[in-house]
Amino acid sequence: MNPKWVRIIAVVVVVAVVASGAGIYYYETHKSTTCGVSSKSTLILDQAEKPDSLDPAVTFTTPGWAAVQQVYQGMVNYNGSSYTTFEGVLASNWSVSGDQFHWNFTLRAGAHFSNGDGYNAFVQWFSLYRDIVMTQGSGFILTQNFWYPGLSYYSNSSANQAAASSMANFLNTTNFYNPSASQIQFMEAPNQSFQVINNLTIELNLGFGYLGVVPYTYLLASLSAPNSYAVDPKVVQANGGVWAQANTFLATNMVGTGPYLLTSYSQQTGYQLSIDPSYWGSAAAAAYPAVNLLQPAKESVEVQFQQQSSVTVQDLKSGAAAGASFAYLGPDTVHELQATRCVTVQALPVVYGATGGSWWIYLNQSTAPFNNWSVRAAVAHAIDYNQIIQEAFGGYASQWVGPVPPSYPYYNPQNLQPYSYNLALAKQEMSQSPWPNGYPGTLTYEYISPSPDWAQMALLLKNDLAQIGITLNLVAVPLTTLYQMQVVDSSTGQCTAQESLNGGPFPIGQEFYTSDYISPDDWTQNDAVSSGSANLCMSGYNNATVNNLVYAAASDTNVTNLTGDYTQMTQLMYNNYTDIWMVVPTAFAVYNSALNGYIENPMASAEPYSLCFNTQSAS
């Protein structure tokens, strides 16, 4: 199966959930009539990290998604703050066949790009197939279920290569605003993933992707990701066309159907979004006022790339910034901002932290000593989780049980208790291993840097494991290096994490996943199935039963069956001590209390956690 690749969290907000539950921290002084921001007509937002690309088919980072979602639109997206229900954006409605394989979307009449080019079913067809041809990191979101016309993901390589070449040529040479009769016939042909029914109707037919011939339970969630958003064929064709590579023009330029125009972009300093005066959605927004993603923009926006958190804190205090995201938001900064007049610091429910990143320690089962069950069990019970929560996270953290993160559908269905600290049991388990007196030598452990939380956790972990005779050499690696470690080295055929690169090999280390969209299989295809990028080169866990359960659950809608599938998956990994599930840090929304119209969503990627800026204004 095709491995899933983690979407890079470029906004890592690290403080954990309060034990009594997340809540809103703010003081009555925040309501003072003197509170405000220095700029109301243009909302200024400080952002710690930079987009990887502005192309919806390429971007695979949090700040990239944040920018794209302001200018481009998809057929559907999340319903306000909900992460389980959806609303039509470019689609007015949809229906699904009884067997769940065929999804029919009716598109909104009158929608158009900011340059005046119209939007229709042919344009949407172009946008979806373009994503498949480009073979970028986020492409798996579509290729789970979709592939080239007349073929499946598992067709022979020569047929797939020919189809890719033919599709690229079609996408580059067709006028999608005035296609010929033969071109329309091709787009309307059955037995393909994306089938045009008429100018304003497109049907998505599942069962052609790497999941196999199955109906996918979480299709609407997957279509809410940017790589399904509509792009203008004329703009693409005039600026490099469609090939199996990134488009350099669209990496820094955006022309979308959304309420904002990109008026300037600097990869060093930031970007500006202005209100689109000809935005097509104003009439639709009036007819559907509850659909927040249809609403016209209230104010322009300026996003400033600001890597120094001290400057961001001062901007929030002074009102120079209406909102902010941080690369690291530790307890001291949270407390400082909580005590700051006119700044709202909102600790969000656990699903926000789980979506942003749930963390664990992997134990590579293909190498000693972690190829021994007793050693893995000993590690699980040698860790003083409460001490780590208190000392590394200032008391703000919660344990979890994987592989599905907290608050997601089918999380820990049998309510298994997180692994507990029991040093006597840990020593007993170690005594039953081939190394009863401790493992000889030193094991190299990687952890994410820079981050005081993870560095402190690594030190505590080192001390804990020393008590059962396991010695760790701690190696700090940046997040980009961790991503490199999740792949197989093409020159050696070996997992990079298990080679002598970057200070490795790393038979034990820190790992995480962040959601592309909210569904349990988005995680299990990464951290449970044998080919998942957070498993293959890290834990090395390969269980045929779990592999089958992952893909069976992805295509089932029966609650009883799904509960059984995820119960069995969780229990098997729990008993195997595949991973040591550690903490879910909390995510905080931080903004000036004069900011209005702030709609939070766990899958949001902007100024954590606002899906779009269009409803926001400052009083």
Structure report:
There is one protein chain. The chain is α+β, with helices and mostly antiparallel strands and 619 residues long. An 8-stranded mixed sheet has the order 2-14-21-13-3-12-11-10, sandwiched between helices. It has a 5-stranded mixed sheet with strand order 17-16-18-15-19. The chain has 3 domains: 20-48 and 259-348 and 590-619, 3-Layer(aba) Sandwich (D-Maltodextrin-Binding Protein, domain 2), CATH 3.40.190.10; 70-249, Dipeptide-binding Protein, Domain 1 (Dipeptide-binding Protein, domain 1); 353-586, Dipeptide-binding Protein, Domain 3 (Dipeptide-binding Protein, domain 3, Roll). The longest helix is centred in the last third of the chain and has 18 residues, at 559-576. The chain is globular. It has 19 helices and 23 strands. Helix content is 29%, strand content 17%.
What are its keywords?
619 residues, alpha+beta, D-Maltodextrin-Binding Protein, domain 2, Dipeptide-binding Protein, domain 1, Dipeptide-binding Protein, domain 3, eight-stranded mixed beta sheet, globular
